């Protein structure tokens, strides 16, 4: 059965890493077809809109999208296209794995953890922003709801159970933010009690960051609110070599968008040296979501084998390969 996905080729290095990723996916013979749509600077230049209606319609229709990095112009439209997409499609769960890979610039080994971040509310959304007339005082409203807290924590525990994880760490700042973070923690405790088979602990966010640096192996699944999750997930990416190896899934009830979480890197755009691994790993998350678990495993194994062999690695990984030669090396290892 053919599955059509909306494909956003993105800005900067986006088209290059997307072409490489689709080349690898095509070698898996999954029956995928692609509906190419625009967003970001490319869309603005072509259509005068950062998020054209046709793009939103395609995501709604196919319910699955694969997205390269986008650039949001300063002073134009949304504060963030990514935030806008999450709000439009209620993509409440942001899932960011951090896994150690061979031959990368990492100080740690054998890290394998997942950050599950609430994606639709909290300080990160930027609601209720204002600046006083004299420019001396800025305000921001932070809203946390029982519904938002309950569904993200439940998602984290369900994910842990589904993929065989043993422990969920609830990260909060309820000792100080007693209303917002306090509500999140209260609801999280209620949900955790319904999963007696999953070990659960609680940790204040600042201690979490310290513990991740000192002893990252103690973590398995982390669940937290939007702003804390934004910071923690990038910290975790740093533990395994940086954003070049960091995929992200944005999942809702009616749609899901999979992506590389790094930026559009305009300084190297067009040079053919961008590392496609983050988007390839995002595509692996997409395959898991589509129920193609074996194919996702094959894709990840091929990436690991290529890194181990140091075959056509891109310059950021210490090699002299190109985006496409690296992708071709990965594709050649897509055995059973």
From TrEMBL:
One of its GO terms (biological process) is isocitrate metabolic process. Gene3D superfamilies: Isopropylmalate Dehydrogenase (3.40.718.10). Coiled coil: none annotated. Its EC number is 1.1.1.41. Keywords: Oxidoreductase. Residues 4-330 form the Isopropylmalate dehydrogenase-like domain. It holds the Pfam family Iso_dh. GO terms for molecular function: isocitrate dehydrogenase (NAD+) activity; magnesium ion binding; NAD binding. SUPFAM superfamilies: Isocitrate/Isopropylmalate dehydrogenase-like. Belongs to the isocitrate and isopropylmalate dehydrogenases family. This is Isocitrate dehydrogenase. It comes from Arenimonas oryziterrae DSM 21050 = YC6267.
